[in-house]
Design brief:
The strands form three sheets. The protein has a five-stranded mixed beta sheet with strand order 1-2-8-3-4, covered by helices on one side. The chain has a three-stranded antiparallel beta sheet with strand order 5-6-7, with no helix packed on it. The radius of gyration is 18 Å and the shape is globular. By secondary structure, the chain is α+β, with helices and mostly antiparallel strands. A hairpin with a 2-residue loop joins strand 6 and strand 7. It contains three helices and ten strands. The longest helix has 16 residues.
């Protein structure tokens, strides 16, 4: 099961290569949208994180689309991956992510403190799982009170399963 941000989280620091100040804000994004970088200094130009936009450079990773780049996203991507956040928009005002303390640790702590996950995500997951299993969208009216962990499977296909946790566990 993937987690979802409930609110935007902002990080301020400097780029390790340029030494210039940079602000990076991670925004919640629609389920299934993936990870997308947005350059505010390039009129909101967006670069989706795909195998085609991923490049390596001397001691760093670069996300590139055309001549627009994002340098050193490794720590932010590691934090998102480790927290199972699969959908987010990373908005920054420079070509380089802030280095912060040189690890993903501070990023993880700040994202967790933003209170990951909520019932809306669970509702979307249930609805999407039912829709995908049936093959067409159906209207489902439901409300959920999560007071303990629940493992949900959609039919016999264990690949379409997920764990629902109480909101107080998803911090």
């Amino acid at each position: 099961m993937s987690q979802r941000l409930n609110q935007s989280v902002t990080f301020r620091g400097v780029g390790i290569h340029s030494g210039r100040p940079v602000t990076l804000t991670i925004h919640p994004s629609k389920l299934g949208s993936g990870i997308v970088f947005e350059r505010k200094d390039k009129s909101g130009y967006q670069i989706p994180l795909t195998i085609d936009t991923l490049h390596t450079a001397n001691r760093s990773t670069i996300i590139r689309k055309g001549d627009v780049i994002i340098q050193t996203p490794e720590h932010f991507l590691s934090a998102l991956y480790g927290l199972e956040i699969r959908d987010a928009r990373l908005e920054l005002d420079s070509d380089e992510c802030p280095i912060l303390n040189g690890s993903a640790d501070g990023i993880v702590h700040k994202l967790v403190a933003s209170n990951l996950g909520d019932t809306q995500v669970i509702n979307e997951l249930v609805h999407n799982s039912i829709s995908n299993q049936v093959g067409s969208t159906i209207d489902v009216e439901h409300s959920l009170t999560i007071d303990k962990s629940h493992y949900v499977t959609c039919g016999e296909d264990k690949e379409k399963s997920f764990l629902i946790l109480p909101s107080d566990v998803c911090r």
